[in-house]
Amino acid sequence: MALRSFSYDMFLSFRGEDTRYGFTGNLYKVLQERGIHTFIDDEELQEGDQITTALEEAIEKSKIFIIVLSENYASSSFCLNELTHILNFTKENNDVLVLPVFYKVDPSDVRHHRGSFGEALANHEKNLNSNNMEKLQIWKKALHQVSNISGYHFQDDGVTNRFWMLDVMMLSTWWGSMDSVEWVKQHLLSRSIISLLAILKLLAFLEMRKELPTR
């Protein structure tokens, strides 16, 4: 079987108003500086709540998906449609990886649709017409599914944030230190991950070539 070609090492899914000029923006900058080609979508330029063909292609050409689940993520039907497409795509392809980041939200609230996630879904239910209730169930299923994937729980303190970003900068220099992508993926998805191991294994998973990028 021929190997699929990738245009992006990483794809960031996030709620712009929550993290674009903070956590996600800083993460994107660090990843780019370390030579990790990352797709970041400009939600502000999107029209309506449906993802475009170009965005679908970007998803299908990416290796790793970081889903930044923040307080207002579920209030955006666009984000929920994007999440659904990502999960449907990764379910059919075993050479990609999803890593959720629970940014100042409780994973159990995402899983059980409580707090801001429950409020957002309730608002969507009010706004959707009776013929679109199936979409609401699809969104609920996607949130439950992503909450069950081992990821990173970002606590509301600056120390955690600084150490997480430091891990990205330091451990990206280890790119290529592991040879078995499947071993990395198996362990990354099967256990709770602390910051250091998450970034180390994520960057090792990115190694599809056998050498560091020349930058």
UniProtKB/TrEMBL annotation:
One of its GO terms (biological process) is signal transduction. The keyword NAD applies. Residues 6-192 form the TIR domain. The keyword NAD applies. Pfam families: TIR. Keywords: NAD. InterPro entries: TIR_dom, Toll_tir_struct_dom_sf. This is TMV resistance protein N. The lineage of its organism: Eukaryota, Viridiplantae, Streptophyta, Embryophyta, Tracheophyta.
